[in-house]
Amino acid sequence: MVPFVARVRARRRETRDTWTLAIDAGGLKFQPGQFNMLYAFGIGEIPVSVSGDPDAPGPLIHTVRAVGAVSDAITRLKPGAALGLRGPYGTSWPVAESRGNDVVVVAGGLGLAPLRPAIYRLLAERSRYGRIAVLYGTRSPADILFPREIETWRRQRNVEIEVTVDHADRIWLGHVGVVTKLIGRATFDPDHTVALICGPEIMMRFTATALKAAGVAPERVYLSLERNMKCAVGQCGHCQFGPTLLCRDGAVMRYDRVQPLLTVREL
Amino acid sequence: MVPSMSAVPHSVLTSDGLDALLDVLRRQGFRVLGPTVRDRTIVYDDIVSLADLPRGWTDEQDGGHYRLTRRDDDALFGYAVGPHSWKKFLHAPTQRLWRAERTAEGMRVLPEPQSTERLALIGVRACELQAIAIQDRVLLGGAYADPQYRARREDNFIVAVNCANPGGTCFCASMNTGPKAASGYDLALTEIIGEGEHRFVVEVGSEAGRTVFDELSHRDATQAEIAAADAISAGAAAQMGRAMPEADEVPELLRRNLNHPRWDEVAERCLTCGNCTMVCPTCFCITVEDVTSLDGATAERVRHWDSCFTMDFSYLHGGSVRASPRSRYRQWMTHKLSTWWDQFGTSGCVGCGRCITWCPVGIDITEEVAAIRGDAAAASSGG
Amino acid sequence: MEVRGLDRLICEHPFFAGSAPEHCELIGGCARNVRFDAGQYLFREGEPADEFFLIRHGRVALEMMAPGRGPLRFLTVNAGEIVGESWLVPPYRWIFDAQALELTRAVSIDARCLRQKAEENHDFGYEMMKRFMAMLVERLHAAQLQMLDVYGSDA
Question: What pLDDT is attached to residue B197?
Answer without folding.
Answer: 83
